[in-house]
């Protein structure tokens, strides 16, 4: 009986957190159209998030391109289909691997940073001081960060995909002596707008989820230094789960439109 009551409590806590997150998202959409716009802070956050994550995304994308091509090439050689390598790599990276891997990396890099930053501001009562001074901390701290992650993640995904395809080209150039022009012609011949548009649209939702959860966990961080670490850790875990759910919904909806 005790175990059953614990399960009920956990389920209630989960539903309560979902409700609070939904209210937090609704408040964001309400505040985003209010003045002042805090445009300067938005640009600063875009630079901070994009610049700090660029190297990590580039290295990860390059390694993914290398490994994916090295692992796939022997199998294609058995069927005499090595010429399909650029098409397979480009479609796989653009549609699925590039967006979700980059989003998970940014969830760990950006989401945890937002949770820790806002959590430390909550613990040290800086957010309370902003409210007392007449400043809107939600607009300045939360709205700008969510907008920054929403608009910067597609840029990072595009950059990561380009680096990953370049890494794949290096393997093909070494193993099969394929020229740069031939490889990229095959890559762009294989891609269609039906591959690019859904993959690009879902990256905006990925970025929104990363910013929303990171800000939510940090803004409502509990008192104490332990709460800051918990906010950063839970932001990464919760965001990772949410990213997979969004990705599933995006693929499901895209498949419906393709069937139509």
Detailed description of the structure:
There is one protein chain. This protein is mainly alpha-helical. It contains eight helices and no strands. The longest helix has 40 residues, at 39-78. It is elongated. The termini are far apart.
Strand content: under 5%
Q: What proportion of the residues is helical, as a percent range? A: over 70%
Q: What does the average pLDDT come to?
A: 88
Provide the succession of SSEs: HHHHHHHH
The total count of helices amounts to 8
Number of strands: 0
Q: Describe the main β-sheet briefly.
A: none
Radius of gyration: 21 Å
Shape: elongated
Q: What is the straight-line distance between the termini? A: 50 Å
**By helix and strand content, what is the structural category?**
mainly alpha
Low-confidence stretches: none
Question: Layout of SSEs?
Answer:
Blueprint: H1 2-31, H2 39-78, H3 85-123, H4 126-132, H5 137-176, H6 180-190, H7 193-219, H8 225-259
Helix pairs in contact: 2-3, 2-5, 3-5, 3-6, 3-7, 3-8, 5-7, 7-8
Could you list some keywords that capture this structure?
260 residues, 8 helices, single chain, elongated, mainly alpha
């Amino acid at each position: 009986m005790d175990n059953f009551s614990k399960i009920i409590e956990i389920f209630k806590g989960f539903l309560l957190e979902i409700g609070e997150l939904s209210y937090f998202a609704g408040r964001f959409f309400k505040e985003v159209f209010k003045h002042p716009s805090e445009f300067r802070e938005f640009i600063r956050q875009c630079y901070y998030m994009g610049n700090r994550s660029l190297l990590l995304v580039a290295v990860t994308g390059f390694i993914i391109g290398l490994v994916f091509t090295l692992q796939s090439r022997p199998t294609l050689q058995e069927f005499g289909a090595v010429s399909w390598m650029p098409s397979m790599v480009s479609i796989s990276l653009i549609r699925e691997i590039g967006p979700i891997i980059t989003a998970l990396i940014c969830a760990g890099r950006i989401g945890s940073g937002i949770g820790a930053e806002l959590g430390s501001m909550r613990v040290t009562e800086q957010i309370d001081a902003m409210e007392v001074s007449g400043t809107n901390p939600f607009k300045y701290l939360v709205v700008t960060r969510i907008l920054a992650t929403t608009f910067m993640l597609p840029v990072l995904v595009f950059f990561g995909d380009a680096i990953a395809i370049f890494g794949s080209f290096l393997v093909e150039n070494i193993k099969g002596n394929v020229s740069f022009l031939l490889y990229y012609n095959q890559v762009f011949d294989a891609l269609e707008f039906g591959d690019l548009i859904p993959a690009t649209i879902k990256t905006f939702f990925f970025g929104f989820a990363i910013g929303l959860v990171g800000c939510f966990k940090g803004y409502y961080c509990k008192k104490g230094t332990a709460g800051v670490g918990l906010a950063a850790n839970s932001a990464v875990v919760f965001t990772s789960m949410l990213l997979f759910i969004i990705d599933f919904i995006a693929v499901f909806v895209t498949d419906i439109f393709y069937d139509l």
